[in-house]
């Protein structure tokens, strides 16, 4: 094994999905929706797949299917307030994963330092190492003791002095992920301005992983760091159709940024992947074309989806705290981190089963009733009743 790969032999995702297929449990180990994607998206894919235009099943333009880059350019030109060139300032990729890979590999040289904010999406570290870079970690820290309320992901902040001490002449990139996986933190404007100022001071690039850009709960606001003064020139922003339209299996992502940086991404992409999946890109383009005219309105999926998810967030937070865990209330994203240490381990295993039910649409309506029963049962550990519930939940 080449030395640069050492330490990355195992992947939590590979292991969990394998275990899930062997034992068929409720899979809490991975973030993907268990409700259907918007109908217009799946209808579009069906139509594209069986339509008369058979050329849609052949290779498309390498740096992005023309119809999709046109739609993405329209969308992000509006969102970031500058005209984006679909030919030179966007590349579509095989999921945000490939966007991260091509962006990191296309910019990191031997010995370059890359700042990664903890907790982070796990692939950042191996990707930086594969490219010969040196990851430097800085944690989000709880800003002060939280009393009389639940902690929120917003209580976790970067220490400004610590952040400043991370930058030096070897620093090439900072990877930002807002909303953050797994904490759910949505970085505030003040925090982003500090990061941006340091990037400019030290001539550092920012890779901004914004795959959860639409999954932001009120009153938080997603701010694209590329829109801050002097940041377009040094920011590469990553998105994912999987997260945008709740169809993670489509594995379609993109990067946008200034043309002089995009050429490095194009180079890695053309020599490792060459081109993306044509029918998927065509269908996603139709998805964006559907949403573009209703952007910002209540009918827009990018508005309705986080609203739906927010209810489930609140429900799950309440449920977790009612049973004695301490959840960190997420401001965005798919995930909730909870401190389960106040509970004994038997209860934790039991609750895991119950919690996933609350996020499963098909059972969401029934979950109040079940929760009451579970809460009642939790006070009677090791009773036969518990076994009965586990059975009910499984079925
Ligand atoms: N970045 C983050 C923060 C993610 O959570 C994910 C998916 N889990 C990705 C990137 C990769 O997205 P995709 O499925 O589009 O490759
Ligand atoms: N986004 C998902 C998560 O973070 C899954 C990532 C993956 O499958 N590699 O849970």
TrEMBL record:
Pfam families reported for this sequence: Aminotran_1_2
InterPro entries in the record: Aminotransferase_I/II_large, Kynurenine-oxoglutarate_AT, PyrdxlP-dep_Trfase, PyrdxlP-dep_Trfase_major, PyrdxlP-dep_Trfase_small
A GO BP entry: kynurenine metabolic process
Domain (Aminotransferase class I/classII large) ranges: 25-358
GO molecular function (one): kynurenine-oxoglutarate transaminase activity
Keywords assigned by UniProt, alphabetized: Aminotransferase, Lyase, Pyridoxal phosphate, Transferase
Pathway field: Amino-acid degradation; L-kynurenine degradation; kynurenate from L-kynurenine: step 1/2
Recorded catalytic activity of this chain's protein: an S-substituted L-cysteine + H2O = a thiol + pyruvate + NH4(+)
Oligomer and partners: Homodimer.
Protein name: Aminotransferase class I/classII large domain-containing protein
Organism: Acanthoscelides obtectus (Bean weevil)
């Amino acid at each position: 094994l080449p030395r640069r790969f050492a330490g990355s032999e195992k992947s939590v995702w590979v292991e969990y999905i394998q275990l899930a297929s062997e034992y068929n449990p409720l899979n809490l180990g991975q973030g993907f929706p268990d409700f259907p994607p918007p109908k217009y998206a799946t209808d579009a894919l069906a139509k594209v797949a069986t339509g008369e235009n058979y050329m849609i099943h052949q290779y498309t333009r390498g740096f992005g299917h023309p119809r999709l880059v046109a739609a993405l350019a329209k969308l992000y030109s509006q969102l970031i307030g500058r005209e984006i060139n679909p030919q030179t300032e966007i590349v579509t990729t095989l999921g945000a994963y490939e966007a991260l890979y091509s962006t990191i590999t296309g910019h990191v040289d031997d010995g370059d330092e890359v700042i990664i904010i903890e907790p982070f999406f796990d692939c950042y570290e191996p990707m930086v190492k594969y490219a010969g870079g040196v990851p430097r970690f800085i944690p989000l820290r709880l800003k002060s003791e939280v009393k009389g309320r639940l902690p929120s992901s917003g209580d976790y902040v970067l220490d400004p002095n610590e952040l400043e001490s991370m930058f030096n002449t070897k620093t090439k990139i900072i990877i930002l992920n807002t909303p953050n996986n797994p904490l759910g933190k949505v970085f505030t404007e003040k925090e982003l301005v500090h990061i941006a100022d340091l990037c400019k001071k030290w001539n550092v690039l920012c890779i901004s992983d914004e795959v959860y850009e639409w999954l932001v709960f009120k009153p938080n606001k997603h701010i694209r760091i590329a829109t801050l003064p002097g940041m377009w020139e040094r920011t590469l922003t990553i998105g994912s159709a999987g997260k945008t339209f709740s169809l993670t299996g489509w594995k379609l992502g993109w990067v946008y940024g200034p043309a002089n940086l995009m050429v490095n991404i194009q180079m890695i992409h053309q020599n490792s992947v060459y081109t993306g999946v044509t029918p998927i890109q065509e269908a996603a383009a139709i998805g964006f074309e559907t949403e573009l005219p209703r952007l910002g309105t209540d009918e827009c999926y990018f508005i309705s989806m986080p609203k739906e998810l927010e209810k489930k967030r609140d429900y799950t937070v309440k449920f977790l705290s009612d049973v004695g865990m301490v959840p960190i209330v997420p401001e965005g994203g798919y995930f909730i981190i909870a401190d389960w240490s106040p509970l004994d381990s038997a209860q934790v295993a039991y609750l895991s089963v119950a919690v996933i039910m609350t996020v499963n649409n098909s059972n969401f309506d029934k979950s109040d009733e079940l929760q009451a029963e579970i809460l009642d049962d939790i006070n009677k550990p090791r009773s036969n009743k518990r076994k009965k519930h586990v059975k009910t939940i499984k079925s």
